[in-house]
Amino acid sequence: MHSPWIAALAALFLWWFSTGAILLVVRLMERRGEAARRMAVLAALPVMGLGIRGYEATLGVSGVGAAYGAFLSALAIWGWIELAFLLGVITGPNARPCPDHVPEWERFLRAWGTLAFHEMLLVAVLALMWATGTGAVNGTGLWTFTMLYAARVSAKLNLYAGVPRINVEFIPGHLRHMASHFRLKRPGWVFALAVTALTFALACWIERAIAAPTPGALVGHALLAAITALALLEHWLMVLPLPDAKLWRWMLPAPKQDKGPEGHHGF
């Protein structure tokens, strides 16, 4: 477990498994209605609680185990928030598709309205984590959540600004209106800035891993490098024609058949 390569593989597996688990719950609950989705979010609250407890417990502890524990805790907190979002419980006040040919300022406000509550919750959690974790011995959990947040905001901005490939296969029916705010076009400066920043961050984590003075620091920075590399890959999948959906499609039940259209997809 002291090897940075094992840490990177662990991060890859946890990313794949946690994403698949969330998509599976969303797909199952989509078939059962709004009340079931709310109950699923409440039932998953212990995961959030364990994440918070683990994050607090690992802040002052160094070592390999503490690095893994902090990483898992940050994923647990992040995973519960994403589950609440994908189940439509914590999203935003706007649940309508975006009409064609609206002014850009109105399009932005409508897009913000689809996920405002989710974004405010993420910012609040991130601020609390920084308030409690700044200067701590073990910063793996703090930086894991920070990198996940930065990558997610960047991905959303790129979907809004426009990218050549947009996968809407896993968007549940109750969130299908969000696709109307996406834009299908050649990547521009938003994409270039995002991949440059993520590449720089990846290089920084690798450099810190190489110079790490302890096994715990080495594993922590290897985990951060892996999650940053995955975020960078996620961005490139918006451009490259790779069948990334196959990573999870085989493990999910068939999607619920819509009874009718829920607005256009915007592309």
Distance between the termini: 45 Å
- The number of helical segments is 9
Domain tally = 1
Largest sheet: none
Shape: globular
Structural class comes to mainly alpha
Residue-averaged pLDDT, rounded?
89
- How many strands? 0
% residues in beta strands = under 5%
Q: How would you explain this protein's 3D organization?
A:
- The protein is mostly helical and 267 residues long.
- The chain has one domain (4-242).
- It is built from 9 helices and no strands.
- The protein is globular.
Summarize the structure.
It is built from nine helices and no strands.
Write the layout of secondary structure elements.
Blueprint: H1 4-30, H2 34-43, H3 45-58, H4 64-86, H5 104-133, H6 140-161, H7 189-210, H8 215-236, H9 246-249
Helix pairs in contact: 1-2, 1-4, 1-8, 3-4, 4-5, 4-6, 4-8, 5-6, 6-7, 6-8, 7-8
Features:
267 residues; mainly alpha; disordered C terminus
